[in-house]
YfcZ/YiiS family protein (Motilimonas cestriensis), 95 residues
Amino acid sequence: MSIEKNDDVCEACGVLVELGSVIHEDDNVLSLPITASDQAQARVLADQLINQAKAKYADCEIEEITEGLEAGVALQLNIRFSCTAERLIFEMALR
């Protein structure tokens, strides 16, 4: 029995592929945690993200979950897109 080591490198013009990733058609919710020192700062950050999402995908649905912390405010922003491709495109644009 022999073991061959294959060190082939594939390049795709700046594209990174994570092997083993599977994109499901129902994976259309983007969850964004926002942590801020106070409610006003969390609101500003959330509004920026909501405005970006609504500007590009008017039919997206927004859910906000706010939690008070000792050191500030945590806000969970869930954005539901009509399809997985929209979620992926929006998420990549944030990076």
